[in-house]
């Protein structure tokens, strides 16, 4: 199924999320002896292809302490030992921007893709339920900045809820989970579903999710 946002979108909102992943993140690969030159990151001991790395994921490279490292978005996978990376760009279509060079780097790639898929599926089902016609797959929805932001906010709400130790304002993770839950609800009210039933490039119907509330069970 389609994913309405990527790890890079989470990085843009919560830069520290990948530096201290916690129990909610899924570790895809880690290693040492990384070399960062320009927009190229290489490690002779890694197998980025086998680890399932893809564009839009986030690489953290560091010398000794992960939380003091640098988080870069992965632009492309050039083979088992090489990635093209970039400082976070305003848009995924922009040219890569080289991070500071380094050698002998440790690295890790943590993803929140399971949570992204869950939120994307929930949003897709809400949109599908608004259409009386034949079922629409999530792949049928056109990408938009609003949809990406909504999915990212919903994902962050779930991530920080998983990291929270207690449902109390004193718990920073709980407070963030509540903040992003409210922002997710607010963002949903701004989403519009434009239905182009005949494929002529013009929407015959436009509907809003403003009266729909997503509840966590």
Task: Please tell me about this protein's structure.
This protein is an alpha+beta fold and 217 residues long. The longest helix is centred in the last third of the chain and has 19 residues. The chain is built from 4 helices and 8 strands, in the order αββββββαααββ. The chain folds into 2 domains: 86 residues, Ubiquitin-activating enzyme E1, FCCH domain (Elongation Factor Tu (Ef-tu), domain 3, Beta Barrel); 96 residues, no CATH class. β4 and β5 form a beta hairpin. The strands form 2 sheets. It has a 6-stranded antiparallel barrel. The chain has a two-stranded antiparallel ribbon with strand order 7-8. The protein starts with 6 loop residues before the first helix and ends in a 9-residue tail after the last strand.
Keywords, separated by commas or semicolons:
217 residues; alpha+beta; Elongation Factor Tu (Ef-tu), domain 3; six-stranded antiparallel beta barrel; 4 helices; 28% helix; globular; disordered C terminus
What's the structural blueprint in terms of helices and strands?
Blueprint: H1 7-13, E1 26-37, E2 40-42, E3 58-62, E4 70-79, E5 82-86, E6 102-111, H2 113-129, H3 145-163, H4 172-188, E7 192-195, E8 205-208
Antiparallel strand pairs: 1-2, 1-6, 2-5, 3-4, 3-6, 4-5, 7-8
């Amino acid at each position: 199924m389609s994913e309405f946002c990527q790890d890079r979108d989470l990085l843009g909102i919560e830069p520290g999320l990948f530096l201290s992943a916690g129990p909610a993140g899924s570790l895809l690969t880690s290693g040492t002896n990384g070399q960062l030159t320009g927009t190229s990151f290489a490690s002779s001991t890694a197998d980025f292809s086998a680890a399932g790395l893809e564009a839009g994921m986030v690489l953290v490279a560091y010398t000794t302490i992960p939380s003091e490292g640098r988080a870069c978005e992965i632009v492309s996978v050039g083979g088992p030992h090489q990635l093209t990376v970039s400082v976070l760009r305003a848009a995924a279509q922009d040219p890569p921007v080289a991070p500071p060079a380094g050698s002998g780097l440790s690295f890790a790639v943590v993803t929140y893709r399971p949570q992204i898929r869950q939120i994307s599926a929930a949003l897709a089902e809400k949109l599908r339920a608004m259409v009386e016609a034949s079922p629409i797959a999530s792949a049928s929805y056109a990408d938009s900045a609003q949809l990406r932001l909504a999915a990212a906010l919903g994902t962050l709400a779930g991530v920080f809820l998983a990291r929270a130790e207690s449902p109390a304002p004193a718990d920073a993770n709980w407070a963030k989970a509540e903040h992003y839950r409210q922002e997710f609800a607010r963002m949903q009210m701004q989403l519009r579903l434009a239905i182009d039933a005949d494929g002529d490039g013009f929407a015959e119907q436009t509907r809003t999710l403003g009266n729909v509330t997503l509840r966590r069970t």
